[in-house]
Specification:
77 residues; alpha+beta; Nucleotidyltransferase, domain 5; four-stranded mixed beta sheet; 22% helix; elongated
Amino acid sequence: MQNNYTCGFDLGGTKMLCIVMDDKQKIVARKRKKTKGTEGAQAGVSRISELIRETFTENNLPIEGLKSLGVGCPGPV
C-alpha cells in the first residue's frame, strides 16, 4: 500500500521550510534551507523544487506519493 503524502511549503524572505505529512496528517519529514532571494526568480524556483525532492529522498519517501501541495508566502507570487 502506497501512502498519499501532503507537502506544506513555507516560502519566506530568509528561509524555506518543507514538511511532509502522511495520510493520517502526521508529520513524517521536515527540512529547511535559506531562501537566497537575491539569486533571482529562476534560482528560487529551482531551490523550491530541490528542497521538496530532498525532503522526500532524505527520508526515504517516494516522491510519487506526493498528492497535494500547499504553499504559504508573503505577497503575490
